[in-house]
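Recall from the previous lesson that a structure prediction takes nothing but the amino acid sequence as input. Here we apply that procedure to Type II secretion system protein K from Psychromonas marina. The sequence below is the only information supplied.
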Amino acid sequence: MRSKPSLKKQQGIALITVLMILAIMVTIAATMTGRLTLSLKRTEGLIFSQSVYWYGQAAGDFGRMILNQDLDDSSVVSLDQNWATPDMIFPLENGHIGGEIQDMRSCFNLNALAVKDGENVRAVPVTQFQSLLEALGVNDYSAETIAESSRDWVDTNDVSNASQGAEDSTYQARSVPHLAGNNLMVEVSELRAVQGVSQSIYEHIAPYLCAIPSRDQSINVNTVKIEHAALLYALFENDFDLPLNDFTRLLEDRPTSGWDTVNDFLESNLFDELTFSSEFKKYLSVSSEYFQLNGLAEFEDRVIAVQILFEMDGNKAKVIRYQSGGLK
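The prediction returns the following tokens.
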């Protein structure tokens, strides 16, 4: 017969064993619960991220729909149309989409600088760009340097047309060597790499500029912002002695639905007794074939920014560039 102390010892060992097994089971259960919770959160995150991505796609589709409706029966593009509504926001389930559409013919197209000089005649867009920079307060020397260097950046050769320009040899001599673009710009931000464009100058002039996949320069007089009257001034400055303030007043008095034709615009009192060649008129327009949507989509605190460039194909908008970022 076992003694009582021996029986108590065995009972104690059994209790300890049960407690150890229970502790292991609790640890395993807690680990499984933690992993399951983490897995659920990851799945939820993926679902939310996918949802905000598709909301971003919806923003693009909505922008395209607005452009199609506005331009279906009109070749004139003006700021009283639906696409020009600022800061559009549309609530959706658990989120929203919003943004604004910009006419990419209401800014100076940097890729127009790629046109070649005439015989002993400087390319007109280069002169216009220099005039714009000077109108924006950039000193004469810097303005000429930036204009010529920007032209060298977007042309296809490696020969500078002016002493103030910059090609590969200039950029290879820098502390971080690189080459000139020698191709059309995709983003205005590329201008930051051009000789003479400091951070402060870039931040000041960037709102007036754009980069579209075209070498044509054609400013839509119906959509230029009043505060950007320098864009029109720069087109006229080289051939006509007209002050910047006159262009500001001209835009302030612009018809609600804009001018129907370029000739209507040039019949404004500001241009009395002035004669314009057909070559000059090509730099002016009352329509546009490029629009950019700067959109934002949000779903359950996930946010994505989208930038979509549309090209009008007839009366239909098609996406030719899509960028997104800021997903979180």
